[in-house]
Amino acid sequence: MTSKLGGEYQYGQLYRSEDKVYPREVKGRFATLRRLAMFVLLGAFYGGPWLTWGGRQAVLFDLPARKFYVFGLTLWPQDFIYLALLLIILAVSLFFFTAIAGRLWCGFACPQTVWTEAFTWIEMAIEGDRSKRMKLDKAPWTFTKIRKKVLKQICWIALALFTGFSFVGYFSAVRPLAIDLINFDANAWAVFWVFFYGFATYGNAGYMREQVCKYMCPYARFQGSMFDRDTLIITYDGERGEPRGGRKRGADAKALGLGDCVDCTMCVQVCPTGIDIRKGLQYECIACAACIDACDSIMDKVGYPRGLIRYSTERALEQKSYRLIRPRTLVYSAVLVALVAAMVASIALRKPAILDVMRDRNTLYRDVGRQGIANSFTVRVINKRNEAHSFSLDVTGIEGIQIQSETEFEIAGESVLTSPVSVTVPHEYAVGGQVITFELNSTDGSGITVIEESRFRGPTEE
Ligand code: SF4
Ligand code: SF4
């Protein structure tokens, strides 16, 4: 039987299947903005791996080599603090923009919205607008229906697989990957991830759609806590619209005792999550603004002012003035500015080389006769720059301390050099436990200096 809500279920069943949502095509300011966002974001995503910078892929997260290339910047595992900082900046930005403009991210920039928009666009181009799609789904399996459904599936699968391929192209050099895939010679893991992400895109954007936002996305659940009375939300002006009802063109609504809502249900028909905004703010609303465009076009047709459904705030609806600057937005913007400044400064001041000094764990120290007491270390130098550099290593901190091994190194660009180093201290100064300082200086005039401290072990050490 059919439930009050429309879904099919049997008595005794706890699960009611979701009704399929057939959003109607909508035209207007926000639809244009959404399309524009879709083209820009998808263009950036699909085009990103093909950009080159300094002779190699501009954005490449090379996990096996543990190096991330972001245009001219090469990030090593030691630089993952920047990744953490970037994630914090993105989280604070989300809080900031949510406090100001509500679910702007959900409606215009979230990957789920953007790919759903692309998949729906293909669906509409092949199967037609809302009523045609509904009719087609109910129709028997004729040749036309099979042709349309097969064509849609081919386009969806092609886009999904290209999405999976582009995603993997950020982790594995995209050009060789493309050639290997064409020649059926690609690494099995790369093929697995292309299909995995392709399948996820196909499922989420083709079938799950609004259900991802309603049931799977955690942001939908807690975004309400980031709202306040000055947050922009998409709202239906009930005071102006109610009581709703149909009327003849040119009829005097006041005389009929009606508000401005003509109850055409266009705002419901265009909604990608299938809700009725006239029932008030609901967590299912992704703030796509499709209902604003739909209602504005109806208001234009019936000759009423636009804005029955509009961006507004709780305070503005109470006829009070809107406050953009308030404690919450001030705190978020201050934190955001501080984090961005910290990240920019730390990247600008980033050391072009790393020096790691590890003590030999097997021997505490060795008595090497006239040379004194020796300690063994393993020195690791990372040259983060693209070009080769020559370095010299020195040690200070104890009277008479000397390095007994190679102190001059030539290290290729983006390479690591690991070398055993023996350090001696005359007997009379080799107490043990003293702090010693290793200093690495470039000898090619590039002005690189890196310092690392360690401890010297000696016979009198506790
Ligand atoms: S209610 Fe309006 S803004 Fe919210 S999801 Fe539906 S169409 Fe988009
Ligand atoms: S589109 Fe506007 S006029 Fe039509 S039902 Fe929705 S709110 Fe009322």
pLDDT averaged over residues: 89
**Helix coverage percent:** 40-55%
Distinct bound molecules: iron/sulfur cluster
Gross morphology: elongated
As a percent range, the share of strand residues is 15-25%
C-alpha end-to-end distance: 83 Å
DSSP strand tally:
16
Uncertain runs with pLDDT below 50, 5 residues or more? 1-6
Q: Give me the number of helical elements.
A: 16
The radius of gyration is: 32 Å
Main sheet properties = 5 strands, antiparallel
Structural class, from secondary structure content? alpha+beta
What is the fold's blueprint, element by element?
Layout: H1 29-47, E1 52-53, E2 56-57, E3 59-62, E4 67-70, E5 73-75, H2 80-101, H3 104-109, H4 111-127, H5 130-138, H6 143-168, H7 174-182, H8 188-208, H9 210-216, H10 218-222, E6 233-236, H11 238-241, H12 253-256, H13 266-269, H14 290-302, E7 309-312, H15 314-317, H16 327-348, E8 353-359, E9 366-367, E10 373-383, E11 389-396, E12 402-403, E13 408-411, E14 415-425, E15 434-442, E16 449-456
Antiparallel strand pairs: 1-2, 3-4, 4-5, 6-7, 8-10, 9-10, 10-14, 11-13, 11-15, 12-14, 15-16
Bound molecules: iron/sulfur cluster (SF4) (2 copies).
